[in-house]
């Protein structure tokens, strides 16, 4: 059965955050990313695919559509062969969870590519969780999910005001700032929170008050700052090397 006008309108509307939040759904497009979410058993409710996509046998969620229909539903200049609708889920942050393990907290990072890359980084270093402040890029946007390279489905992410989350923690809260201590001099830490601010603004004033130690990456050249994801990677690498070296 061909897609109706209402189907196209709904799929296109899910590109915008306000419509995603109202429906509790998001749309994702592309063979690689849909395959990653299927492999991770992420709750995809609907899958629209052209005959060029090899659908899993017996998957009742798959609805075959024509290439012309995919072009109308897609938001890419060159449409892919598969598009899916997923359920937005919000995992609750357990009381006291931040006092155990390593947490990456993102303070106002609005670039979706950076947010997705930071999720990928958290996955690489096996961090226990990621916190997103409300003014970060939307976790369920296509750009964030694509940039995460599948880590979106593997990393525990919590959207929460950071001042609320960090108010009563007992572990070190490391804030990345140019005026901080050399990150390479950090003592071993198995439990800590690493806070990364936006490149343009840095850490917000309210979050700065909750930071217990400021750290920086030594600069040898003339660059004004580092990309947020690069800075986070260097800090996380240092923490993992001094606190929890990989086993055999």
Key attributes of the depicted protein:
single chain; 248 residues; alpha/beta; Alpha/beta knot; 6-stranded parallel beta sheet; 21% strand; elongated; disordered C terminus
Between the first and last Cα atoms, what is the distance in angstroms? 54 Å
Structural class given helices, strands, pairing? alpha/beta
CATH topology of the largest domain: Alpha/beta knot
Number of domains: 2
* Helix percentage range: 25-40%
Give the overall shape. elongated
Q: Could you give me the name of the CATH homologous superfamily of the largest domain? A: SPOUT methyltransferase, trefoil knot domain
Q: Roughly how many Å is the radius of gyration?
A: 20 Å
Oligomer: single chain
Most strands sheet? 6 strands, parallel
What's the mean pLDDT score? 91
The tally of strands reads: 10
CATH class of the largest domain: Alpha Beta
Protein model, in words:
With 248 residues, this protein is α/β, with parallel strands linked by helices. The protein has two domains: 5-87, Ribosomal protein L30/S12 (60s Ribosomal Protein L30, Chain: A); 97-243, SPOUT methyltransferase, trefoil knot domain (Alpha/beta knot, 3-Layer(aba) Sandwich), CATH 3.40.1280.10. It is built from nine helices and ten strands. The strands form two sheets. Strands 7-6-5-9-8-10 form a six-stranded parallel β-sheet, covered by helices on one side. Helix 6 links the parallel strand 6 (129-132) and strand 7 (157-159). The longest helix has 16 residues, at 228-243. It is elongated and about 60 Å long.
